[in-house]
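ok trying again, last paste got cut off:
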Amino acid sequence: MPRARVAEVFAALSLTTDLATGVPFEKGLRTCALATAFGRELALDDADLAVVFHVALLRSIGCTAHASENAALFGDDTAFEAAFGRLDPGDPGVLAGQLAAFGQWVPGRQAALARTFVAIAPVEGPRASRAGCEVSRALGVRLGLAPAAIDALDDVYERWDGRGLPGARRGEQVALPARIVHVAEQAVLAAAEGGAPAAVSEVGRRAGGHLDPDLADAFLRSADGLLPAIEAPDLLAAVLAAEPAPAAAAGAARLDDLCVALAAVVDLKGRYLLGHSAHVADVADAAARAAGLADPAREELRSAALLHDLGRVAVSSAVWDRPGALGVADRERVRLHPYWTDRVLRRCTALAPLAGTAAAHHERCDASGYHRGTGGAELSFAARLLAAADVFAALTEARPHRPALDPGAARTALVAEAGAGRLDADACAAVIAGAGLPRARRAWPCDLTDREVEVLRLAARGMSNRAIAVRLRVSDRTVGHHLAHVYDKTGRRTRAGAAVFAIEHGLLPA
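nice, full thing came through this time. structure:
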């Protein structure tokens, strides 16, 4: 692939988090366009404007950190995120109406879910926010963001009146870029429902509560000139044109780092998905090497493999974590996730060449796959390799309804799929040849011990200390000691942060 513009990869991440949070597609692009225009109106210098640009585009990169927990509590984490993003605890009258509509995505349980939210929000809210901030910080470093942007990402859920999350800052303690993004985001959300008049009304209503009153006033004075930014016919083009100079580009190595960050956001959507995207990429890369693909083709396949599951975020974690059979509606949602992968990648010119391969990972040679039902000569060899790699990787990972298969059993299943005409025989042979046995590891990262790695892997999947103790046949206290050592050595403090560490260092899946 040619060098990719970094902002386009960030745009793909923004579109992915739109899907994960249940907001209108391209909401993140609109927020970025408006926040950057507002920053220019405020006469920010280029360095500060770049921070606003990046925070607006990436403000939700920690949104999947608590996805499984939110799904368990509220039935659908994506619907919950959409509702939560509009709540206004600073206005009792508005909040009462919002809570009355809360939980409507689960018919018959609406009132119960609202009561649950009110009861647990004081404890669960800060916990979820800390997890999201830790993930944002870890991924922000991998994405190469400036320290000021990483710091501002910690404040995206804070509020001017101190009623935000985790509730550690208020007023001017909240980073200025975050306060600018707060104004732009509320204007964009309101405009999606009622146009420019609604945007103006909502920013005015939230001034002094959610929003910095001086920034709100400055926005309202210039609203007529600012709001057209969110109506651009091509929002991505508008965002790229608005990016403060210099526009960064990424070669193969840098692109791989960026793709790993996107993969981590996706894999946090399910307790059993952690590390899956990177695992598929490793299997596909080894298969491509075994098949004799040239380096440029291998690099492109690896990037497609890292991004193949972007569309998973559009499906609730309740589906990915469910141990039982899926109903018809949920099966249809699952079948659409490659469609969303395709949509996100094709929207961004730099990543569009990957879309055909990445979005075909569930297609089959006999046209029995999804989401397009294509097969035969319509599938490139790269797409066939990725499909076989995805099957092999998934089979050797645990899922809620079954344990992981050993490589021999996975090989047998892969051969059977090829024999039935669903997977390409040459692609399966390349995957089997490339898989081999894992090489001996000289040392775990950060001097973790074997047992600490075991505990980390289980904790990352959301298991309680008690459950880990039962699994490993040790005491709860011993597990606590191991976890304390893990957190001290890795510098992480939440399950989601530890999960990202494990993904980044290839510790998941086991």
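cool. The chain has 25 helices and two strands. Strands lie at 4-5, 249-250.
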